[in-house]
């Protein structure tokens, strides 16, 4: 399932109301940089707002609102807030589990690692220990 979320920021600058919004493909951002980028600059680029302008400064002074999470983003979305760090951790864990599922299939003859939570947890712990 695709991981995405809608972002929007509403603000006024020099008597003009602005409401830049975009649906963010979280998978694409994670694959490009290994973490979610600054969402203000993402919105600015999507709406041709110069990040070195007073308009951008005005935009940054207002909170981003989040809506319509999809995929793993649903688990990181509560009361209109989106926990970006929690999403990044879940995204990496999901990526690791996909690789571990191949290992479980090849070495343990397990077709669905999700049905074997204890083995999944052990493989994930071994992977994390090996990364240290």
The residue fraction in helices comes out at: 40-55%
Low-confidence stretches: none
The main sheet orders its strands as 4-1-5
Compute the number of helices: 5
Order of helices and strands: EEEEHHHEEEHH
Kindly name the structural category: alpha+beta
For the largest beta-sheet, the strand count, sense and barrel status come to: 3 strands, antiparallel
Question: How many distinct domains?
Answer: 2
Radius of gyration from the alpha-carbon trace, in angstroms: 19 Å
Beta-strand content bin: 15-25%
Quote the average pLDDT.
91
Describe the structure.
It is a single chain. This protein has 132 residues and is α+β, with helices and mostly antiparallel strands. The chain folds into 2 domains: 1-82, no CATH class; 84-132, no CATH class. The protein is 48% helix and 20% strand. The chain is built from 5 helices and 7 strands; from the N terminus they run ββββαααβββαα. A 3-stranded antiparallel beta sheet has the order 4-1-5. A two-stranded antiparallel ribbon has the order 2-3. Strand 6 (77-78) and strand 7 (81-82) form a beta hairpin. Helix 4 (84-108) packs across helix 5. The chain starts with a strand and ends with a helix.
């Amino acid at each position: 399932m695709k991981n995405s979320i809608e972002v929007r920021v509403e603000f006024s600058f020099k008597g003009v109301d602005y409401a830049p919004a975009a649906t963010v493909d979280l998978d694409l951002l994670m694959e490009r940089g290994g973490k979610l980028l600054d969402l203000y600059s993402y919105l600015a680029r999507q709406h041709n707002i110069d990040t070195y302008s007073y308009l951008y400064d005005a935009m940054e002074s207002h909170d981003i609102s989040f809506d319509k999470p999809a995929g793993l983003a649903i688990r990181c979305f509560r009361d209109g807030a989106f926990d970006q760090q929690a999403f990044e951790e879940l995204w990496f864990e999901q990526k690791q589990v996909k690789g571990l599922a191949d290992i479980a299939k090849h070495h343990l003859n397990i077709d669905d690692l999700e049905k074997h939570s204890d083995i999944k947890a052990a493989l994930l712990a071994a992977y994390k220990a090996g990364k240290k």
